[in-house]
Design the sequence.
């Protein structure tokens, strides 16, 4: 009997030794992370780096659209959140997923996190809306459709997609900024503050660039934009 009981216990210990994997049904502490990676279903993402608040993350599923109230009255847990989280070392991976029978077109998965300042953020989803506020080491995204807002600072930004809208507003410039944006269709705003020299290059089939000052070679921030159709404002 003792041998039979020890087998499942052994496997539980084996899995836990590699990583802490669990569904997100509640908030939990992430004060030790330095990198957050978000994958899976399309979602709405909000990430902050507020040092005066607990470092926590939470996900949820919310039905939206014309029939949201009707669904809520007739079906319980129609937008059941089955997101998985893996915490391995200093990296937190959030794999966003609604229940298999939910209609993802009507469900709005949401991810919120307050992470330590200076952390790196990576988003790998086909479609998402992300709002980041605070101080980040880097921001990297890939997918097809993205709406990205950054208020604060990120030393390295690497954004790629088919259709991208990006608004990057820096509250400080540390002269270490490098921004790479590649998209077929791009609508971008980059704000660095008054009288900040910027080295920027735009390569596109058709573009409209609105900048108050010319590019300054060798300056930082360094901005490289590539795309088919580009509209960009640099301030």
Sequence:
């Amino acid at each position: 009997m003792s041998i039979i009981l020890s087998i499942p216990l052994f496997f539980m210990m084996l899995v836990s030794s590699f990583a802490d994997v669990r569904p997100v049904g509640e908030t939990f502490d992430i004060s030790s992370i330095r990198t957050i990676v978000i994958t899976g279903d399309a979602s709405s993402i909000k990430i902050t780096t507020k040092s005066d608040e607990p470092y926590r993350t939470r996900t949820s599923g919310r039905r939206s659209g014309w029939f949201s109230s009707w669904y809520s009255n007739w079906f319980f847990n129609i937008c059941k959140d089955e997101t998985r989280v893996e915490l391995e070392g200093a990296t937190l991976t959030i794999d966003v997923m609604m229940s298999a029978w939910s209609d993802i077109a009507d469900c709005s998965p949401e991810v919120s996190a307050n992470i330590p300042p200076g952390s790196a953020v990576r988003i790998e989803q086909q479609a998402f809306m992300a709002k980041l506020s605070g101080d980040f080491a880097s921001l990297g995204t890939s997918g097809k459709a993205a709406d990205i807002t950054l208020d604060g600072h990120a030393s390295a930004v690497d954004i790629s997609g088919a259709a991208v809208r990006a608004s990057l507003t820096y509250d400080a410039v540390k002269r270490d900024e490098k921004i790479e944006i590649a998209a077929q269709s791009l609508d971008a705003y980059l704000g660095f503050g008054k009288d900040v020299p910027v080295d920027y290059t735009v390569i596109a089939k058709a573009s409209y660039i609105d900048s108050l000052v010319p590019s300054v070679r060798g300056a930082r921030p360094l901005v490289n934009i590539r795309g088919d159709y580009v509209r960009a404002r640099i301030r």
Remarks:
- DSSP finds two helices and 14 strands in the chain.
- Helices lie at 2-18, 68-74.
